[in-house]
Structure formats: C-alpha cells, structure tokens
Amino acid sequence: MIRQSLNKIRAHARLPPKVKHFLKIKKDTFRSLTLSFLVTLFALGLLVFDAFKGMENRIVDFRFQKRGALSNPADVAIITADEKSIKELGRWPWPRHIHAQLIDWLTQANAKAIAFDVLFTEPDKDRPWSDKKLGLSAAKSKKVAFGMLFHIGKDGLPAQPLKPIPELEHPDVMFGAVNIFPETIDGVCRKVPVWLPFEDKVVPSLSLAALSIAEQTTPEKLIEELDLPVEDDWNEITVNFVGGYQSFPYHSFVDVLHNRVDPSFFTDKIVLIGGTASALFDFKATPVSGYFPGLEIHANMLDNYVNKRFLNRVSGFWNVFAVVFFGMLCGFLASRAPTWAGAVSTGLLIGYFVLCQILFSRYFLLLDYFIPAIAIISSYILVFFYRFLTEKKEKRWIKDTFSQYMSPKVVEVITTDPSRLKLGGEERDMTVLFSDLAGFTSIAESINPSDLVSTLNEYLTEMSDVILKHDGVLDKYIGDAIMAFWNAPLNQPLHANMACLTALDQIDRLHVLQEKFAAHDLPLIDCRIGINSGHMIVGNMGSSTRFDYTVMGDNVNLASRLEGANKIFKTHIMISDTTYEAAKNDIETRPLDWLRLKGKAVPLLVHELVARKNELTPEQKKAFSFYQEGLAQYKEKKFKQALSKFKKSLESLPNDVPSKMFIQRCEGFIAAPPPPEWDGVYVMTTK
Q: Are 301 and 212 in contact, with CB atoms under 8 Å apart?
C-alpha cells in the first residue's frame, strides 16, 4: 500500500518522464528501501547512544593533523621549569621566594596576567617566610592566578579541591582549576572545563582566571560574553588546538629569572608558568601530539577565548539528517542503479569527509562523520547483496524461461540487462517469420506414428537451430508450423535482414533433410515461409501464472497469411514489400504479384525471396528480368506484350510456376478482357 501511494505521488508530480521512470518504485525496490530504512534506523540508534565515540574522536584528531597550525595565536608566553632550570636552581620543588622573584620581574615587565600551573598546596616548613613572600608578591602584583585541583566526588561532580596554602589567599589573587579530564575511552585530552561549580560559586579554569585578570573583569562576566559552546555537566569545551608542541613561545624559568630574556617580550602578554621537565610528569596525550605539556593546553584555551575560535558541534538535527539522507539515498541507488551506485557511495564517503574537513578547518564546526559513513556503507552493501540475490534469482528465471526459445547470445544479454525485457507488452517495429510444412496431413497418413514423430522432431530441430543461429526468438510451435520474430527483446536494427537470411538458410537446410529422408525411404517434405515487418506488440502475454513471450498484431497475422499465399505460386519464401524495402541490400528477390488478402481492402505487393545478394544464377537473372517487365505490362493491361515476356521468362526457367500462372492469366484476359475497373490485383478468397 505504501509503495502504491508513493507511485501515485510520483505519477502526479511535475517531473520529466525519464525522471518519473527512474523514481518508479517497483516491488524489489520497495523491499530494498525497507532494508535501507532499517539500516538507517540502526545507524540513528548508534548516533543517539553515542556509539563509536572513540572512532569519531580519532577522526576529529585526524582533522587536526591535516588542518595544520592556525595563524596569529593569542599573545601568550610560557615560562617552564625545564631540565635546564632544575639543573641550575636545584631539585623541584623550589623555595617559594624564587617564584615571588619571577612575579616581581614579570610585573615590572608589564605582563597582563601571570598564571601558575603549579600546585602550592603544602607549606614550606623550613622557610615559612618564603610562603609569605610569594603571597605578598602576588597580592602586590594584582595580576596573579594560582592553580587549584578538584577531586571528583562519588556523584561525579567536583568535590573539595586541593587549595593553595593560606598565605596565597588574598582579594587581589585569583585561583583557577587546573583539571583536565582525559577521555575514558583512549586517555586523550580533548576537552577542558571552562569553570567548575563548587559551593554555589563559579570556580574558573586557570586559563579563564588568567583572561579575567588580563581583561580586568570577572570570570562570570567573561562566561556571559564569550558565548562558550559548553558540552556537558562539567562545563567542558573541546579545545581548538592552535597547532602542535611549542605553538606558543617557550622560555626557561632560569633564563627569565636571571635576566637572560628581554623584559619587553612579556609586555602585554598573558604568561603561563609550569613544569615541562620530564620528572614533573605534566604531559598529556592530545589530538595533535601523544606527548604534550599540560601547560600548553591552557595556552590553547586562552587562544580560543581571545580569538573566539571555539569548536562548535553542529546541531544534532544535521547529524540525523545526514544519516537518514545518505542511508536512504545509497539504498535507493543500490536498488535502482547498482552498476554505478558503488561509485556514488564512494563519492559520498569522500565528499562528505571533505565537507567535514572544510567545516572544521575554515569554520571550526564539528560534524559527525563515522555514523553517517556507517549508514552509507551498510545501506549500500546490504541492499547490494539483497539485489545480488534477487537478481541472481531473476537471472535464473530468465534463463529457464527464455533459453528454450532464444539463442544463448540473446539470453546472455537480457540476463545481464533484464531491463531490455519489457514485461506486459510494448509496441515495436519488428519482423516476424512463419514457416509450415507443405502437405503435412498426407505425410502423416503415409508413415507410422513413430517415424512421423522422429521426422517432425528432426525437421523442427533443424529449422529452430537456424532461427537461434540468427539470434531470432523462437515464439512457438503450432503443430508442424514455426513462428519466430526479431528486434525484441534486443534492439536489432537489421531485423528484416536477419529474418530473410534465416529463411534462406532454412531452405538450404531443408534440401539436406530431403536427401537424408529420401535415403531412408521417408516421404518428401517441403515447407513454405512467410515474412513481414511492421509495428507489433511484444511482451509477456497471458495470466499471472502462465504466460508466453510473444508478438501480436495485424502485421503478425499478415506474415502468417503470406506463408499460406505461397500455395498459389508454388514458392518457398514470400515476403512483404515492407520487409523487402528494409532488407533489399542483402537479398535477391522478384516481385510476385499484388494481392488483396481476404478481409483486407488495401492491396499488397509481395516478393519471392530467392537468394542472398549477388547469388542469383544467370538463368534466374534473365528470367526474373523478363518476369518483372511482364508483370508491369500485365498491370497496364498490355496482356499480349506481358504474355511474350512471361514466355521468355519460362524459357530460362522452364519449371517456374509463377511465370506459367501469369501466362494462363494473360491468355484468359486476351480471350475475355477484364472490366474497366480491374486494377491488376489478385483477390485471395481463402486465408
């Protein structure tokens, strides 16, 4: 019912005929679309439940690697506790007054903000004054943010944090969370919390705290202004990494502390301070590198804030649309055009990947790829295999149905392309051939039944083989008669030529059979053939359970009548003028007569098919020349002149029955002239 409704909509739509035909939903197509719909539903389920998240993450990582570094990173500088600094300043952790000296130095250099990705959570028991020094320098600078680390509670929310020592708490000092939670699937850090809710307060991340100091505003106001693409309850956003390691300028802690770096370099910059020495274990796996300093992740976050280049996930609607559209499209194409659906599906996979990459690289948009790709691949493969199985069944049916009355060549072509086989009937310009044994009743009465059956079977086999050799369709046997046709289901532009050559070969084969049967004392057999070309209806005719692939129409009946008309002229092959005009370049004929068939008002010029082109004997050429002249004079009522020509024709071919027949007619009309309305047409009184 659904399929019929869709076809009604298609029929009434204003579309080109070829498009309407392509969109016609057949039974197999509807089943394929149903299968594609189920695959699409399955893919949507994977999308809803965030399945294959790890694969999607890896694809996004690949996009980072292919995109390369972004230009114009934010004014962020990194000062690191590296191997060189530890070597010169001693083992980590260093006394707090060393960090205080760095704060004083950077403040004098007019840094916009100073953020420590270092946890000062335990007091320096040996040097309490050092802790106070750090606190005083930070408070005096008014540009410092210290890191603090939150634990995850049993409810999955932030629990009590590890706060810095009390000496650092001051109204002019900020604290920022340094938490970076790696993905549970693969341990890669792709997201960073912008802020964490704790005790009804907003605790900014270290990068947001540094930015609020630089912009001289509050974290709450920044959150409001930045329009952050927060993705979860931890207020995380996906980091849009500027590039790989050291996308921002790095300086050794000891070099800055000992004035080996120009202070102007840090002017109006946000400065991040942390450890990069391998012993400090502050390296993370990220999309851009498997060994990446956590300190630089905060730098990338600062760039995202300052340049407002956040990675925004495309609305879920578009992901759903992509899954449904691609899944159903590939299923439809695989059902309707399997020969090029694979190329289209491959093109969709590549094109959609390129689109996702462009949206990511140019517009910082994240569009899911893996699940839509599953929809494309699964829909195409499943529908393709379904079509493969159904087409295999269809091809077996075609072979079983048509191999008995089509040549193997024709069967192979329509098996490869069943669309050539029009089921139900179509009008085509075709040629049909009828052949029949002459005097079959007398033959049947003269021999025993077993000899009759073997003789008839051998005759029909020989004649049928000739038809199949010339790629004709063996329509049916009607007792001892054979019916065949050309130009369906294959396109055979020379169908008239093929039928005529078939008839000539059948007569040659008949002569061989006559000699064989005579050697076995079997009766002499002879046959008559009629051929006509014109418009006919061809297709599977019959009931839904039993049918034949056959031709119908007035032109089919005419071929049968021509076969019978051979009795009058004692000829073997009679063809219509339509067939003659189509095949005259390959055959030799002579015009026989104008016939008015029983039940027909319009007379018909008929020809005797004698030989292939240029294969007439000298006697035939001479006789047929006189015969044709005599026929023209006969038509003009010049019976004496015509009589002379037919006699000369008979001199070359003494046994030519048509010449003898016209001699009798001319002699009769000379003795008793025809009435004035006589048109030279022979009227047949029987079929």
A: no
Residue 410: pLDDT band with limits 50, 70, 90 = low
Cβ atoms 398, 421 nearer than 8 A: yes
Residue 216 has pLDDT above 60, yes or no: yes
pLDDT at 28: 64
Residue 297: how many other CB atoms lie within 10 Å? 23
User: What's the Cα-to-Cα distance from 330 to each of 324, 386, 420, rounded to whole Å?
Assistant: 10, 13, 24
Question: Which structure tokens are listed for 665?
Answer: 């007619």
β-bridge mates for residue 482, sequence order: 435, 477
Question: What average pLDDT does this structure show over 609-634?
Answer: 96
Rounded to whole angstroms, the Cα distance separating 21 from 30 reads 15
Beta-strand runs (E) in 125-256: 144-152, 158-162, 174-177, 191-193, 195-198, 201-204, 236-238, 250-252
Domain coordinates in residue numbering, the chain: 2-64+314-399, 71-308, 420-615, 616-687
> How many other CB atoms are there within 10 angstroms of residue 168's CB atom?
23
Share of the chain above pLDDT 90, in %: 68
What are phi and psi for residue 414, nearest 5 degrees? -75, -25
**Closest CA relative to residue 94, chosen from 144, 136, 133:** 133
Cβ count within 10 A of residue 574: 29
Please state, in angstroms and rounded to a whole number, the distance separating the CA atoms of residues 430 and 264.
Answer: 94
Cα–Cα distance for residue pair 435/513, rounded to 1 Å: 16
Give residue 348's pLDDT.
95
Question: In whole angstroms, what is the distance from residue 594 CA to residue 679 CA?
Answer: 9
Query: Among 256, 215, 242, which residue's Cα sits nearest to residue 103?
Result: 256
Are the C-beta atoms of 307 and 72 separated by less than 8 Å? yes
| HEC per residue, 353-398 | HHHHHHHHHHHCEECCCHHHHHHHHHHHHHHHHHHHHHHHHHHHHH
Give the closest residue to 609 by CA, choosing from 642, 574, 582, 641: 574
Decide if pLDDT at 563 tops 50.
yes
pLDDT in tens, 26-75: 556 677 788 888 989 998 998 888 889 999 999 999 999 999 999 999 99
Question: Across residues 406-423, what is the average pLDDT?
Answer: 59
pLDDT digits (tens, 9 = 90+) for 171-208: 999 999 999 989 988 999 999 999 998 888 889 999 99
Note the pLDDT of residue 665.
95
State the pTM of this model.
0.62
Q: What is the pLDDT of residue 273?
A: 97
Secondary structure (3-state) at 603: coil
Is there a contact between 531 and 579 (Cβ–Cβ < 8 Å)?
yes
CATH class for the region spanning 420-615: alpha beta
Give the contacts of 542 (CB within 8 A, at least 6 positions apart): 548
CA atoms of 500 and 580, how far apart (whole Å): 9
Q: Are strands 195-198 and 201-204 parallel, antiparallel or unpaired?
A: antiparallel
User: Under 8 Å CB-to-CB from 210, ≥6 apart: which residues?
Assistant: 113, 114, 115, 145, 176, 270, 272, 298, 302
DSSP letters spanning 399-430: HHHHTTTB-HHHHHHHHH-GGGS-SS-EEEEE
Tokens of 359: 């949206």
CA angle at residue 581 from 580 to 583, to 5 degrees?
65
pLDDT digits (tens, 9 = 90+) for 98-139: 999 999 999 999 999 999 999 999 999 889 999 999 999 999
**Tokens describing residue 266:** 């840090």
d(CA 323, CA 32): 17
- Asked whether residue 9 carries a pLDDT value surpassing 50, the answer given is no
Cα 262 from chain centroid?
Answer: 63
Q: What is the pLDDT of residue 3?
A: 38
